[in-house]
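Hi U.,

Before I forget, here's the chain from the pilot set. I'm dumping it here mostly so it's searchable later in email.
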Amino acid sequence: MSFIKSKGFKYFKNFVIGVGAAVVMLGALMKITSHPLGNIMITAGLLTEAFLFLMLGILPPEKDYYWEKLYPGLDSYNANVSPLTAGGGSKASRVLDADVVEGRLGGMLDELQGMSKSLGSLKALQEVDFSQTSDQIKSMGNFYSKLNEAMTTLNDTIDDTKLYKENVSSLNQNLSSLNSVYGNVLNAFKG
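Structure:
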């Protein structure tokens, strides 16, 4: 049993878990992209993961936290458990310890609330449907090209309108001159 609790075994176990997960992910990626090695990789990864789950089911859980040092008697079922700070020491040091712990917990709570908001934003972004975005962009591109054509046509029309106005103005001057000549001819015949 001491081999199972050794650092070397813990390192080996974490290494195999990481490699197994990586092989499963690569196999899934290859399977999704229809890569020829997809079946082999995903089979190898899933067999590795099955072995790991079997191993983790057989091995006893690791005891990483030593809460019994802070709460003596925690290992016993019917123990009267109270923290070490409740007993000895001065009242000032207990208040100081409580303030330090409360401050750290408050900071962690603020961080967790920030993370919760961030995850909520990511969840909202995940639920957005971008499937028709490409069609909408194409449609907008078509709209802008048609609008550009219309503006070019309108610009050409403005130029034609200016030319028409100049021609009408010239025609009015010619008609005025012609009227004046006609008036002179009529006056010459009368007189």
